[in-house]
Amino acid sequence: MNSNYEFRKYIGFQYILELMTPNTPFGNDEVKRIKPYVRSEKEKLLLELNEIERIVQTYEVNEKELKRLEHAMMNLKDIRGALKKAEDICLNDVELFEIKQFLLCFEELKAAFTDWNMAAGLTSVTFGDTAEALSILDPHGNKSPGFYIYEAYSEKLDKIRLKKKQVELVLRQTYIQEERDKILEDRKKLICQEEEEEGRIRGLLTEKLKSHTSQILNNIKETGKLDYYIQKAKIAVKYQGVKPCITDTVYLQAAMNPEISEILKEKGKIFKTISITLHKGVTIITGANMGGKTVSLKTIALNIYLAQCGFFVYAGEAQIPIFDYLHIIANDYQSLKDGLSSFGGEITELNTAMEKVDKGFGFFMFDEFARGTNPDEGTEILQAVVKYLNQQNAITLITTHFDHVAQYADAHYQVVGLKDRDIKELSKEIEPGNDCKNVEVIAKYMDYGIFPVAEDKECPKDAVTICRLLGLDEKIMKIMEQNKK
Amino acid sequence: MLNQIIKDYGSHQTVLGLTSIGRDGEARDLVTRTHKPGIFVKKDTLIATAEGLLKYCDVTKEILANTEFPTPLGNVILLRALSDGNVELAGPSINRQLGQLRYLFGDFGADKVIIDGALSRKSLCSRAVADSVILCCGASFDKSMDKTLAETKFIYEILTAAKSDYDDFIAYIKSKKENRRFILYTSRGDYILPAQNSELWELLKHPEDRKIIAVYVEGALSDLLIKPIVMSGVSLRQMQFILQDSSKMMLSKAMYEKLLRKGAEIRVMDTIPVLAIAINPYSACGEAFPKDDFYKKMKTIFTKVPIVDVMEKTYEQ
After folding, report:
1. How would you label A165-199 residue by residue, b for 16+ Cβ within 10 Å and e otherwise?
2. Is B61–A148 a contact, with Cβ atoms under 8 angstroms apart?
3. DSSP states of A32-75 as a string?
4. pLDDT (tens digit per residue) in A80-91
5. Domain map of chain B by residue range?
6. B315: which chain A residues are within 8 Å (Cβ-Cβ)?
7. Which helix (H) or strand (E) holds A364?
8. With contacts defined as CB-CB under 8 Å, which chain A residues touch B54?
9. Is residue A180 pLDDT above 50, yes or no?
């Protein structure tokens, strides 16, 4: 599976990740670790989706409690370094202080979680009791925020400190330098004793805490998971996501892609949602240039990938299978780092993809495959790919504007494009010479929606229309028209 | 001086918060490798110091907070002294962090916060961080007493720069939201907001028929900025250069004097009071100024501020 940064960026998954703002370093770790579930982990995926559903469903009624819970989370500092250190060496005062602070904050987190979870009702997050660990560092039980080596730990320490205090009192009232020096000398001895005893106690405290380490680490893990689920729920609420049904076919109704939707919104446009059903075998999307085939592809890929990773998807309704692998071949994001031409690159990439074919149930996507070569041979290559993949245990989606490919596929969709538009109306808005604006005008009239068509239906031919609208040189247009005749 | 302040406050029931923008309290000066008095604090004093220096603090320590302000010696830790004793200080050296630390001290009950500064980090005695300043000088600064006196006078003049009397202009500057490097003020009472990349000397040279009587400079007033103005021959008679506060005055002594000779004035929006000048006639290297002479000369130069000789050791309460 090519689940690298480029792939995630390409389909708009990276955008979703960047919307997530975990409250704890532990939640952040979960976000960094995100990877798609595999087929054998179906139960786990369902459990996670159900938990997120609970948070989403109670989001509004539970908002005040959620705020408190998130605030409690934010106060947690990462003490995993100190816990690890405690395994081998004695902790110092600052580390002991930080563990105490963590345990105090954690008490509040647990209380906030209990209140919040009354409505939310998560079943998979459980926190262990750390009151005993706290009592080690808070011997008076008054939950004071500071920490020092308390006299309560040892009678000996208590006595040393008492003596030290007396010496310091005398020192305060002594003004002759020689006498002061003598008292300071006595004080030095007491400080040595104090430090020695403090060191011994630190060792004891470290040893005692060690037996609670696994419990604390487990709580940290659970906090990370909770934080992560809350983040997932929040971005589901933000773009009205739905819980995907885990089935064997892909069915997306009114799917959208938040990143592209935001870009369009900035330009004052609205994202046209996409509905599609993909069965095992090959589905082809054809359409005109500038018709938004790639947008459809990215939207479908994003939502499939989201579901694989245990996210809500951005659609009115969604059924999505768990795949063993996903593979996208798109010129846009494949760099020419290997020094191959775009066509050469595609073929190498195809080889990598085909190696996965017998490794379970897969999902392939090809964005205008072989467009870099001549249409005749390109069509032949693509026909072969379609015929081959039809036989495999995989769902494949291919966009192309080659004719005679769709007839070998199981299903065929077309981008609406300029089909239903009044070209005369459109031409009125075109300003000769103002290319930037003209591209915008065409984009405005372009319908990015897709609809199912017969398998052998030819590709819509909008390219010439677009050339004319963009004011392609008259002489060239003329020759084109003569040739056509 | 710091020890003197600690002692003086010790007789009151004042909780002190101490920190340093450099490193203080070590028995040996790390720059001059000479003996230095340590810092001896009273019980209940709050201290902000680097984690790496905790082991040199012999007070009984209660850790109160980890500020996570980094220093080369570890994060700055806030602690409470549960006994009297010696401490070593190394606090943050960024204005914003010092400002935050000041509030944190307050949260834990400090009545008074003292920041041990350094002349080379004058920018840190900004109003955002401190309410008042104590200036320290002595034989460690320079072997020549006259040079030390002259330099102290210069620093004192800068620190005590007067508040601008163009109240309307000051009110305008404070109310504006966008940042501008300069704002000009004319004799007719108009404000001119020049383009962001304009050069100050050009603005002053061609004032579009309007007489400019004051310039507000956002951030530091540096030699680089002033030199072309002085060189251009623009008349600076009674021109006010207004700064946020005196910590923004970064001119060298020579450039400062040139500016004054041309008739210009340095003014500020917020003044910061200099409470006292502490003097030490002994240098870290063992040299000394004639003690009484130094004190007397200081007294004649600085008539408006108390002079305190830190070597006058007294243990009376």
Report:
1. bebbeebeebeeeeeeeeeeeebeebbebbeebbe
2. yes
3. HT-----GGGHHHHHHHHHHHHHHHHTTTTTHHHHHHHHHHHHT
4. 999 999 999 999
5. 2-131, 167-270
6. 174-175
7. strand A362-367
8. 92-94
9. yes
Fold of B167-270: Cytidine Deaminase; domain 2 (3.40.140)
How far apart CA A438 and CA A435 sit, in angstroms, is 5
Query: What is the mean predicted confidence (pLDDT) over B248-263?
Result: 88
Question: What is the pLDDT at residue A1?
Answer: 36
Over 70: is that where the pLDDT of B208 sits?
Answer: no
State whether A93 and B85 contact (CB < 8 Å).
no
In this complex, which of A94, A191, A194 lies closest to B66 when CB atoms are compared?
A94
- DSSP bridge pairs for B137: B279
Alpha carbon separation from B298 to A356, B1, B118, B133, B313 (Å, rounded): 87, 17, 20, 18, 19
Q: How confident is the model at residue A189 (pLDDT cuts 50, 70, 90)?
A: very high
**pLDDT in the model for residue A149:** 96
Provide, as residue numbers in chain A, all residues whose Cβ is less than 8 Å from the Cβ of B69: none
Residue A445 CA to residue B307 CA, distance in Å, equals 82
pLDDT tens digits along B4-40: 777 776 666 788 888 888 777 666 655 555 566 678 8
- Given CB atoms, is B77 within the 8 Å cutoff of chain A? yes
Q: What is the dihedral of CA A155, A161, A163, A166, to 10 degrees?
A: -140
pLDDT in tens, A337-394: 555 677 777 888 888 888 888 888 999 998 888 887 888 888 898 999 999 999 999 9
DSSP string, chain B: -HHHHHHHHHTTTPPEEEEESS-B--SB-TTT--B---EEE-TT-EEEEEGGGGGG--S-EEEEEEEEEEETTEEEEEEEESS-EEE-B----SHHHHHHHHHHHHHTT-SEEEEE--GGGGGGG-TTT-S-EEEEEETTT-S-HHHHHHHHHHHHHHHTPPBPS-HHHHHHHHH--S--SEEEEETTS-EE---TT--HHHHHH--TT--EEEEEESS-B-HHHHHHHHHHT---TT-EEEEEEGGGB---HHHHHHHHHTT-EEEEEE---EEEEEEESB-TTS-B--HHHHHHHHHHH--SS-EEETT------
